[in-house]
Amino acid sequence: MKAIGFKKSLPITEKESFIEFELAKPRPTGHDLLVKIAAISVNPVDFKIRQNAAKDTVLDTPKIIGWDAVGTVEAIGDQTSRFKVGDQVYYAGDITRSGCNAEYQLVDERIVGHKPTSLTIPEAAAIPLTGLTAWESLFDRIKVNPETDKGKTVLILAGAGGVGSIAIQIAIKVAGLTVIATASRPDSIDWCTKLGADYVVNHYHLKEELEKIGHGQVDYILDFVDLGGYWNTMVEIIKPQGHIVSITGSKTPLNLDLLKTKSVSFSWELMYTRSMYTTNDLVRQHQILNQLADLLDAGTLKTTLTTMLEGFTVENLKKAHQMQESGKTIGKTVIQF
Known about the structure:
By secondary structure, the chain is an alpha/beta fold. The chain has 10 helices and 15 strands.
């Protein structure tokens, strides 16, 4: 089978930052599905791993990355029970295993969902990683209750990004929250507004902008951009007994003592935690993806696909990574095979 990977971490402009090669098609065992991939999407995690996985070495075999795919089940392992050959599926996968930048991939059925029937293959490919991240942030980390928490405020940092784009929709349509998204460029402001954000504020003047709209403090904060850079501001604008969730990490230690007097909760969110550690609730991701599919098919949520590249090639993968590295992409970028 055809695959695209890298042996050394190189700038994306370098000729061998990605290389095409042939690999034997794998066979599924246990809980695994063998999926023939039809489309993938590219996320910031892809270029971060490409930049760092082989910095000081040259790998013997190319590393295959990629964690967002749609495809068709071609074969199943002997312990599978949720899918059959021929099913169309979508998933984000497991960061500890070979990724989806290949014609075929093995993936544990417990982190796979049935593809939304109303979406095209590229439209569905835009959803899994960001959808899981946003859903887990709201319902598994903060544990938002749509009945008792309805109307509470959530600030979404980087509202026009991949995770922010689906988080805005889930927060409004499913969680019933009042959504404040951050954006600064006219196109990203317009995107957040079209997705339904109640307010869009400029992240360069965050405190002032929040006060201007009458929400000087917020109940929840979802950080999808820069935890360290916003930390002191978050401490000021989070309400007492509020909750902050971050997916970005920090290069320097955080002073959690600053949250003490407000009794504010802080959570990390990493979509890969369940698959990395094969947690007891691993199947939760299968369930979330199916819930998202139902909401997409009902028209409650819509795809966040904005850019589509035709053809599974080194050139397209490089282009998609360059777009992600720019930090200016809106929504999701998908490569159709």
